[in-house]
C-alpha cells in the first residue's frame, strides 16, 4: 500500500481516530477509578481491568426483555457511541487540528454529546423494569438541568473569541497571555460541574445509584449493549475533557499539552468525586438549575458589557 492509502486508515482508526478514543477512554476510566480508590484508602483496579470488563461484556449474551422494542434495544447503544465518536471530528484531539471543521461546529458537537444521555433515557424507558424507568426519568431530568449551564459556560470563550468554530476558539485561547479559567472563573466552574452532571459522576450519580435503583436506565442491559453504552461514556469523558481544556486551559497545540491538561482536569474531578457524597435527585436538579444557570448567564452579561465598552 502506498502512503496515500495508508494515511486515511491511520487517521480513522489509530491516532487520533476511533480506536485511539476507545483505548484512551478505557485508560482514563482506569485513572479515574484508581485515583478515587486511592483517595478513599482502597487499592483500586489493575491497569487492564476496564479492558477486561469490556471484553467480558462483549462476549456475553444479549437478552431483550419482554415488552421492549428489540430494534430500539439494539440500536440505541450503537447510536449513542456513534454520536460521541462523531463529535470528536470537530475537536483538537491529542492536540492535533480537528479532522473536520466548519462554522458553528461547536453547537453540533454539543448536540452530539447530548445524544448519549438521551439514548440512556430512551433505553431505560424502552423496558418495563421499574428500576430502568426510574433511572430513565432521573437521567432525562438531570439532562435538562446540566445541559443548559454547560452550554452557557462554553459560550463565554466563544463570545470573546468571536467565533462558533472550535478550531478558531482553540487558536484564540493559545494566543492569550492568561488562561480563560483565570479571566472567566465562573464559566470554568460551571463547565466542570456541568461535565460531572452530564457524565453522571459522583456526587451527581443519582440516575444510576446502585444502592437505590440497581443500574438505573441500564438495569436490563447485560452484554454488548451495556458494553457500548459504557464505552460511549468513556469516549465522552475524553471528548468533554478535551473541550474544557481547549476553551479554558489555554488551548491544545500538541500531544503533551493534551495529556497534561486533560489528566489535570481528570485528577481534579476525581478529588471532587471523593469529597462529596451522592446528592438526591431533587438536590442535583433544583439547586444546580437555579444557581448554575444564573451564574453562567451573569458571566455572559459581564462579557457582553465588556465587549460593548
UniProtKB/TrEMBL annotation:
Compartments where located: Membrane
GO cellular component: plasma membrane
Record-linked InterPro entries: ComplexI_Subunit1, NADH_UbQ_OxRdtase_su1/FPO
Pfam families reported in the protein's UniProt record: NADHdh
Membrane topology: Multi-pass membrane protein
Organism of origin: Anaerolinea thermophila (strain DSM 14523 / JCM 11388 / NBRC 100420 / UNI-1)
Keyword Membrane listed: yes
Predominant cellular place of this UniProt entry's protein: membrane
Highest taxon of source: Bacteria
Membrane spanning residue stretches: 9-31, 72-94, 106-126, 146-166, 178-197, 237-256, 263-281, 287-306
Protein name stated in the entry: Respiratory-chain NADH dehydrogenase, subunit 1 family protein
Record keywords, A-Z: Membrane, Transmembrane, Transmembrane helix
